[in-house]
Amino acid sequence: MTSQKVDYDALIPNNVGLADDPKLQRALEEWHPGYIDWWMSMGPDGFQMADVYLRTAISVENEGWAKFDFVKMPEYRWGILLAPAVDGRTIPCGAHVGEPAWQEVPGEYRAMLRRLIVIQGDTEPASVEQQRFLGATAPSLYDMRNLFQVNVEEGRHLWAMVYLLQKYFGRDGREEAHELLRRQSGSEERPRMLGAFNEETPDWLSFFMFTYFTDRDGKMQLEALAQSGFDPLSRTCRFMLAEEAHHMFVGYTGVRRVVKATVEAMVAAGIDDPSDIEAVRALGVIDLPTIQRKTNLHFSLTLDLFGSEESTNAANFFNAGIKGRYHEDKLDDDHQLAGDTYPVSKLVDGALVSVEVPALNALNARLRDDFIDDCQGGVTRWNRVIADAGFDFAIRLPHPAFNRKIGEFSGIEVSPEGELLAQADWDARRDEWLPTAADRAHIESLMQSEFRPGEFAGWIAPPSKGIKGQPEDFLYVKLP
Ligand SMILES: [Fe+2]
Ligand SMILES: [Fe+2]
User: Residues of the chain whose pLDDT is less than 50?
Assistant: First the structure.
């Protein structure tokens, strides 16, 4: 593996030799003020002058790649960092499998590649926009710090994609980089490109669910792009994955702490029945059925991000060698899939059945299945907290056909267990399965800020350990 040292003193910290590429440097420096404008107007609202205990990437080696210090967010050192090059790396899949990985954009796949990078890039600022008002209701300074950490890193991920656009795609790359700052989450006339990134993140349970499920879609997409035969994209995504792990940690531990506070309060109050919603809510915590409904919502919204189960676009990306499967380089097959099949759940004669389809067309379904497996681990651990407290209740991931707007199941209604429903049955039971106005109102009522060091809002348990080993009462955010 070879990697260049990080030039941390430059205006734009980088390990891509920016100082030796004046044209690119100029393009990025021209883009920079627009980015800062975007960050100031669309980034964390009301906390731009706070000193936040943040990690900043200063190296790409596995050990010690980040340093922790107090930073005002607008002064965060957003850098361009590629994972070390793998010597002799080859294209891992498709028609060119085994050929040396591309260091320049392959002309015949230029448009496809640009589209993939733009779609990935669009999600990064979108989530910052979705989360911009959460600081004001943070349940602790620890959580506030984690929110801002996620936000600045999504900002860096935007830089990562903009670097690729500016360096490798000339004029249209510059235009796309500009557009990434113009679209806006939830906007009528210029929305973000993907549905889940135009939804609101109005409260902290939504934030934890988003970072658990939707950032995990990000992880899966980055994993697939890390398998790209276009080596700069692969290296960029490999380093982003190091940061992404923390985002899912925030989501996993966040939901776990919510569950913990709930079951502890129930035990203390002597409540045995998790479905006694009124009694549980009166304790100032979030009842388990509401957590289940939030799980159903965020999981199903996130599944839509994988696109149609069967997709010729996905087949084209794979054939071209610009997007692989999850862990492509560890899979043991010919990496071309010409005659192979893959089982996809489909609606046939009014029933959901598993059908073998050409594997090349089923790559979205496959990545989605890998995602579902990846989601289950944390859910199982949430359930352990519930079981350990003595309750007979388990959070379950709903059936993949539940509440879908894209793909094979978009036209049907299905229960979380996978039972096909007539529209009237769905309408009658929807409120059992998806968050209701009353659920939202209860969550909303709990969103009171707690800014005293070491204190936590009652609806969420403290974390088991501090960031970077800091004590529980550490002042993670110094408010101005
Ligand atoms: Fe990201
Ligand atoms: Fe993320």
Answer: none
